[in-house]
C-alpha cells in the first residue's frame, strides 16, 4: 500500500482498489459481477484525484538555452504501490510523446489524468477467422504473419484532469495507445492484476497495418481507415519500439 507520505485520498483509492479487484483475479472482468457498488466507489474516488493529491505540478515550459541537453526518457513512471491484486503509479509524458499501442492480458485498468491532456485510442483483438490475410503496404516478411491479428478500433477520446477515468477490461478496450496532447501530461494508472510474465501477463506492443486489398478479392481499400466494417483492421505484434524507453 502507499507510504504514509501519500495523501489520504491516494490511501483510500489504494484500499478501494484492493477491495474491488481482490475477487476477480481469474476470468472475471469489470464488465460482469465486479461492476457493482465496489467499482462505482472506486471510480468516484479516482475521478476526484488531482495532481496536488500526489504533490505534483505541471511542468512549466522553459525556453531552450540552445545548448545540447542530456537525453532523458520521453515517458517516465512514478511507482506508488503494488500488491498481487493491483498496481498503482503515475506516468509522466513529455510534450509530443506517446505510450505505444500495447495490451493488458487478462487485466482491468483505470487511467485518470492529473494534468495536461491525453488522447487514448482503444482496440480489441478479434478472432482470426480469415485463413488468408490481406496484402499490406509495406509487405510483411513470412515470419511476421504469425504475429498478425484482426482487430477493431473501439474508441478515440481525449481526457483532461476534469474528465472521469478511462477504463479497460480483459475483454473491452484492452489495447490502447496514449498520446500527450498540446503539452506534457501525467496520469494515474491502476492495473488489476499487475503485469506478471510468469502468470501470462506480459506486455506486448503492436502497430496498425494498412491493407492494400481485401483478402481473396484484389479489391482496393482505403489505406487511411482501419476498415469499412465497424472499424475492423489488422495489428502486427512488434518488439518494444526503440524510441519508447524509460
Order the strands across the largest sheet as they lie in space: 3-8-5-6-11-10
CATH class category of one domain: Mainly Beta
Rg (CA only): 20 Å
Spans where pLDDT lies below 50 across 5 or more residues = 26-31, 64-68, 214-228
The fold-level CATH name of one domain is Jelly Rolls
Tertiary shape? globular
Order of helices and strands: HHEEEEEEEEEEE
Give a quick summary of the entry:
The protein is mainly β and 246 residues long. The chain is built from 2 helices and 11 strands.
Structure description:
With 246 residues, the chain is mostly beta strands. It has a domain at 74-215 and 227-238: Sandwich (Jelly Rolls). Helices cover 11% and strands 32% of the residues. It contains two helices and eleven strands, in the order ααβββββββββββ. The protein has a six-stranded antiparallel beta sheet, with no helix packed on it. A hairpin with a 4-residue loop joins strand 1 and strand 2 (87-93). Helix 1 (8-21) packs antiparallel against helix 2 (37-48). The longest helix is centred in the N-terminal third of the chain and has 14 residues, at 8-21. It starts with 7 loop residues before the first helix and ends in an 8-residue tail after the last strand.
Features:
single chain, mainly beta, 11 strands, metal-binding, RmlC-like_jellyroll, RmlC_Cupin_sf
